[in-house]
């Protein structure tokens, strides 16, 4: 244990580790998280509040934070204001602050705070919207040269599917889903295009090989924080790795 017998890490260490791993002023970062795995934090403040404050003390007011607020609302009604995220306490905490904006994608919505939040979450036309297509969040994030900063997760991220689509992965295809979107109490039926697995009943995505390769060949970096790990990868390097391995189906897919 660090610091003393009672605590595993401090708010100052969060900031120092983020800087050491490569995060800097003005950065656009995307965070998958399980912050409880870091252990006990030496602070009287809310855990999520401390992480949010620490992140912005590093990226500054010209930086942008994005978290996944996925709901996979294919068989249920989606409301971008009220439908909770399935991506953990940190993403739901950010939404509760109402300090940023959430995209209207009923499958892969994201929530963003900071300089590019409005641009990244804006969907001009939800009809026939492609989750990983042109003008999607994932395309915008790539064009802005974002960074993946995962708390207690692999260096892989949902962005992999965007690059699989660009590379023409043979094990995925565009499939239309009919969804229900609640906008201010009025429910609309829309069709959303999801780039899904061809054999989704027998196969699922795997990220372990991707992560191991990225770490081995120094395409991603890690820093220990408390009992956990922060993992960092630049979006351009993530793209290059996907394009390099996309023809190896078993690199991204495993049998269920």
Describe this structure in words.
The chain has a domain at 11-156 and 209-235. It has 9 helices and 13 strands. It has helices at 11-21, 47-59, 89-97, 117-121, 137-143, 159-167, 208-216, 235-245, 249-252; strands at residues 28-30, 64-68, 77-78, 101-102, 110-114, 129-130, 147-151, 172-183, 186-197, 203-205, 221-225, 228-234, 253-255. The strands form 3 sheets. Strands 4-5-2-1-7-12-11 form a 7-stranded mixed β-sheet. It has a 4-stranded mixed β-sheet with strand order 3-8-9-6. Helix 1 packs across helix 2 (47-59). It is globular, with a radius of gyration of 18 Å. The termini are far apart. The mean pLDDT is 94.
Structural class: alpha/beta
Strand sequence of the main sheet, in spatial order?
4-5-2-1-7-12-11
- Give the SSE order as H and E letters: HEHEEHEEHEHEHEEEHEEHHE
Question: Roughly what is the average pLDDT, rounded to an integer?
Answer: 94
The helix count comes to: 9
Biggest β-sheet strands, sense, barrel:
7 strands, mixed
Low-confidence stretches: none
Distance between the termini: 38 Å
Total beta strand runs: 13
Radius of gyration: 18 Å
Describe the secondary-structure layout.
Elements: H1 11-21, E1 28-30, H2 47-59, E2 64-68, E3 77-78, H3 89-97, E4 101-102, E5 110-114, H4 117-121, E6 129-130, H5 137-143, E7 147-151, H6 159-167, E8 172-183, E9 186-197, E10 203-205, H7 208-216, E11 221-225, E12 228-234, H8 235-245, H9 249-252, E13 253-255
Parallel strand pairs: 1-2, 1-7, 3-8, 6-9
Antiparallel strand pairs: 2-5, 4-5, 7-12, 8-9, 10-13, 11-12
């Amino acid at each position: 244990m660090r610091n003393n017998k009672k605590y595993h890490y401090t708010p100052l260490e969060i900031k120092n580790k983020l800087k050491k791993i490569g995060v800097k002023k003005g950065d656009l970062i995307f965070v998958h998280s399980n912050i409880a795995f870091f252990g006990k934090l030496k602070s009287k403040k809310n855990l999520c509040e401390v992480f949010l404050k620490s992140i912005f003390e590093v990226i500054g007011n010209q930086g942008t934070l994005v978290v996944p607020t996925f709901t996979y609302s294919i068989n249920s009604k989606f409301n971008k204001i009220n439908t909770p995220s399935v991506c953990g306490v940190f993403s739901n905490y950010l939404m509760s602050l109402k300090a940023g904006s959430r995209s209207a994608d009923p499958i892969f919505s994201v929530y963003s705070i900071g300089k590019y939040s409005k641009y990244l979450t804006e969907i001009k036309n939800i009809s026939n919207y492609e989750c990983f297509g042109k003008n999607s969040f994932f395309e915008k994030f790539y064009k802005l040269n974002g960074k993946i900063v995962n708390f207690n997760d692999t260096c892989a991220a949902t962005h992999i599917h965007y690059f699989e689509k660009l590379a023409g992965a043979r094990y995925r295809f565009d499939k239309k889903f009919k969804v229900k979107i609640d906008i201010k109490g009025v429910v609309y039926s829309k069709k959303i295009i999801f780039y899904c697995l061809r054999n989704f009943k027998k196969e699922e995505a795997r990220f372990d090989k991707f992560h191991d390769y990225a770490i081995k060949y120094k395409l991603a970096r890690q820093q220990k924080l408390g009992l956990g790990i922060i993992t960092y990868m630049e979006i351009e390097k993530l793209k290059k790795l996907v394009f390099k391995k996309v023809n190896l189906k078993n690199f991204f897919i495993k049998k269920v």
